[in-house]
Design goal:
Low-confidence stretches: 459-464
Radius of gyration: 26 Å
Structural class: mainly alpha
Helix content: 55-70%
Distance between the termini: 71 Å
Number of strands: 7
Number of helices: 26
Strand content: under 5%
Number of domains: 2
Largest sheet: 5 strands, mixed
Shape: globular
Mean pLDDT: 86
Keywords: Membrane, Transmembrane, Transmembrane helix
Length: 604
């Protein structure tokens, strides 16, 4: 297809469209711009974290003081997204805005901007595979992908979209490095962007590792001896290791540089980058010759690298999924983004179409294009895209949270549908060709999720009826004024409510849905599961709890057994160490609140 001047402007028009779409959605009657609310638990926690740093918290302090009370709740998050939220807020403060409002609006708008940039990055990455006049479709696909659009929405301060942006930049650079062995800088940039993405979250490995495996496969099968692909792999590995070194220097306290952590950037990631460099550097020395010799060298060196990593860091391959605690598993089971796309159940196909959308077409487009590509640079780039696509779609089906990584890769590959369709209909009349391309565009964007929604037998389950706004208003009425370090502590059975309540009220909270806060979770569950009043009271005193809040209509950390404290409270059997708090009618329909002998929740 012919390159045209207007195609150079299309990606920037796409960014504008993406921002307009997000703003329009945010201004719906129940949208976050209308209701002045963030969209999810993590966004409120991110706001707490950023405000704590802004207010003088330590750079290396990853403990949220208003959760996990009284000692605070540790998190595994890193600082890049914090800085992206704080930078425009700091500019707004210089121009006269209040710090609280500036941080709020920056958190509200950061993800739409990152999503728009991701659409642009998808177009750039797609240009390594497809003509410029086709590559813009990658941005449209990513804009229209349902879950990617949701993660990038106004009102969500979430690091997944930043990971997606950096992974797309890494993929685009690596596609160019595979296509042209002389593009040495692209290989290093690919590794560097992947390292920055890992700094934000280990999910970046879902894109980077399959792409590196593809370079290894190309090294083995290269008729020219594979040296070019091995060298590109070495450059990418060193770029990754260099970015991880930067992340360690900036985001990890010097005394913790040698501490292995699987859920955030640490020496484990540096070892992984050096292990990749060991493999690709080793085959440059030992793996020259026929494809069998190259295969043996690559397999042997890879086995040595994996064995070394496994000995030094057992379970390193599990990354952020290294969670075994039964209570945390129970909590994760209540979080939709941690669930699989259950295509094997009745209605599962509808879920696949709804959650993956038109990006599914990439599963057919990339293999078809590879079958026609021969053995040149175009074929090498398509091999990288194919392996990355296969890995990310498997991850997306395994857990919804990984759809964001799949959506970016699939948008890059799926844009090639226009090339295949144009070739298939080139003998038709101009109107027929135009109609075919329009239908292709619709299929890549809206038809799959719309069809999936139509196939669903029943409406999606509504959210648990634990309204946060009236509870926050009631608590703030008990204790008006700004938050302080010594605010009273609340224990609630629904730990997904606590970050927003911590932002909107002058209370601290015990629980929060984060795996590093398992101690606070265990104590919360222990209170509501207690059959011995002395044990429950001991835990409440340990946590210095002033108020106990129970949402009677939603899932929580409590047992259904009738003899437990949680069940007895719901039945109206209140032990002597708790006193029931009278609630307004709209709150009493959902909540039970009890005070303890701790210092008064209303005393300032």
């Amino acid at each position: 297809m012919r390159d045209s001047p207007i195609s150079r402007l299309l990606p920037f028009g796409l960014m504008l469209v993406a921002l307009v779409v997000h703003l329009r959605l945010g201004l719906l009657p129940d949208g976050p711009l209308t209701t002045r609310t963030l969209l999810d638990t993590d966004s409120y926690t991110r706001l707490l974290r950023v405000w704590q740093l802004w207010s003088g918290g330590g750079w290396y302090d990853n403990t949220i003081q208003r959760l996990g009370a009284p000692e605070g709740m540790p998190l595994h998050w890193t600082r890049p997204l914090d800085l992206l939220i704080m930078a425009p807020a700091a500019l707004a403060v210089v121009l006269g805005a209040g710090a609280g409002a500036a941080l709020w609006w920056s958190a509200m708008l950061v993800c739409p901007v990152l999503h728009a940039l991701s659409c642009l990055a998808a177009v750039w990455a797609a240009r390594a595979l497809w003509p410029r006049d086709v590559a813009w479709a990658a941005g449209v696909m990513l804009l229209a992908q349902p879950l990617a659009l949701s993660y990038g929405a106004v009102g969500r301060a979430d690091h997944h979209v930043l990971i997606q942006l950096l992974c797309l930049l890494s993929l685009g650079a690596l596609l160019r490095a595979a296509r042209d062995p002389g593009a040495r800088a692209m290989a290093a940039w690919a590794g560097g962007f992947a390292g920055l993405a890992y700094w934000v979250g280990p999910e970046a490995l879902l894109v980077f590792m399959p792409a590196m495996a593809a370079l290894g496969l190309l090294y083995v099968t290269d008729a020219a001896g594979g040296r070019g692909m091995a060298a590109q792999g070495l450059r990418a590995a060193l770029g990754f290791a260099g970015a991880i070194l930067l992340a360690l220097a900036v985001d990890v306290a010097p005394g913790q540089w040698l501490r292995p952590e699987s859920d955030r950037v640490s020496i484990v990631a540096l070892a992984l980058g050096l292990g990749l460099a060991f493999v690709f550097g080793g085959v440059l020395v030992l793996g020259q010759g026929g494809w069998r010799r190259r295969l043996l060298a690559g397999a042997g060196l890879s086995a040595l690298a994996v064995a070394g990593l496994a000995l030094a860091f057992p379970g390193f391959y599990r990354a952020s999924l290294a969670i075994d605690d039964p209570l945390m598993v129970q909590v994760l089971g209540q979080i939709r983004e941690m669930q699989p796309i259950a295509f094997w159940r009745a209605g599962g196909i509808a879920d696949v179409l709804t959650d993956l959308g038109g990006a599914l077409f990439a599963l057919a487009v990339v293999p078809l294009a590879l079958a026609r590509a021969g053995r040149g640079g175009e074929a090498r780039a398509l091999v990288v895209a194919l392996l990355t696509l296969a890995a990310t779609v498997a991850a997306a089906i395994w857990a919804l949270r990984f759809v964001v990584e799949f959506a970016g890769v699939a948008a890059v590959g799926g844009a090639g549908a226009f090339v295949l369709v144009a070739r298939a209909v080139r003998a038709l009349s101009a109107p027929a060709r135009g109609a075919a391309l329009v239908l292709t565009a619709l299929a890549l964007t809206v038809l799959a999720p719309v069809f999936g929604t139509a196939l669903q037998d029943e409406a999606p389950e509504s959210a648990a009826d634990c309204p946060v706004a009236p509870l926050a208003a009631f608590l703030q009425g008990l204790r008006p004024g700004p938050a302080a370090a010594d605010d009273p502590i609340v224990l609630t059975d629904n730990i997904n409510l606590t970050p927003r309540l911590a932002v909107e009220t002058a209370f601290r909270f015990v629980g929060g849905p984060y795996h590093r806060g398992i101690g606070a979770m265990a104590d919360t569950a222990g209170v509501f599961a207690a059959t011995d009043d002395a044990a429950a009271r001991s835990l409440l005193e340990k946590r210095q709890v002033a108020l106990v809040v129970l949402c009677s209509r939603g899932p929580g950390l409590r047992s259904a057994r009738p003899e437990t404290l949680g069940a007895r409270l719901e039945q109206g059997r209140v032990p002597g160490f708790l006193s029931r708090v009278e609630l307004p009618a709209e709150l009493a329909a959902s909540y039970l609140i009890f005070s303890t002998p701790s210092p008064s929740a209303t005393r300032r």
